[in-house]
Amino acid sequence: MYESHFQLSPRPFGDTVDPSAYVSLPSRDAALRRLRYGLEGGPGPVVAFGPSGAGKTLLANALARELGGAVVQVAFPAMPAAELMAFLADELAAPGDPAPGLAGSIRRIRGVLASAASRGERPLLIVDEAHLIEDPATFEALRLLLNFASAGSPDLSMLFVGDPELLLRMPVSLVDRLAAKCLIGPLSEAESADYVLGRLARAGARVPLFPKDALRSLHRAADGLPRRLNRLADLALLIAYARDREEPDAESVSLAAREAAFEHAA
């Protein structure tokens, strides 16, 4: 609605997990390097954990794009082990007719991983919302996949993404094998400003649009969380457009924060 008013294309603050929306920031770039090192050099899985709205899924997708190769993403992992293994076997495009039961799915997965390893490939499994897994058998089945190792290291890279409680839910047998764990926390005030301006620049903004005091207000209202920054910046632009302003000022951000708080309470 406001895009033409501010000469933007596309909408800059759509809440997306597309890696093209990734904005390079010191804390996020450091997390990418840490997780990539764990995946490429470690013998076990890696974990990206942090509060809801911190941009963990976007970071995981940016990492997958950086690594290249085959990626399987599980968005709802809270399913029985047998169902999860059957899902993974299908997603990995394992050849042959599906065999019944957990053992049949694991055999299919082992076959496709061995085939990939023979070609020098190592698929990446992203287990998103992993804190929702309650059944220890599901974690155990994922751990056992790491035993498929054709050349010393596992044939499958594994990235767990979730809220901080994930580390409490993980069994010790899996925690002991972690190659890296990385906290994805809120952005600093400077990073919040760079994030907002970066998203605007991707949408074709020729000027910053948000003045410095408005950027400070955005950071405080959003607690430095990218998902909230997206929502508040989007609302502030809409409010400024409705009031026929050239830019969203601190007052626009304040009104946006009040509206967002009302929506949350409702």
Question: How does this structure look, described?
Answer:
Helix 3 runs parallel beside helix 4 (101-118), helix 3 (81-91) runs parallel beside helix 5 and helix 9 runs parallel beside helix 11. This protein is an alpha/beta fold. The chain contains eleven helices and five strands. 41% of the residues are buried. It folds into two domains: 26-183, 3-Layer(aba) Sandwich (Rossmann fold), CATH 3.40.50.300; 187-265, Helicase, Ruva Protein, domain 3, CATH 1.10.8. It starts with 25 loop residues before the first helix and ends with a helix. A five-stranded parallel sheet has the order 2-3-4-1-5, with helices on one face.
In the CATH hierarchy, what is the superfamily of the largest domain?
P-loop containing nucleotide triphosphate hydrolases
Biggest sheet: strand arrangement: 2-3-4-1-5
Briefly note the structural class of the backbone: alpha/beta
- Name the shape in a single word: elongated
Over the alpha carbons, how many angstroms does the gyration radius reach?
A: 21 Å
CATH architecture of the largest domain: 3-Layer(aba) Sandwich
Beta content comes to 5-15%
Instruction: Summarize model confidence as the mean pLDDT.
Output: 91
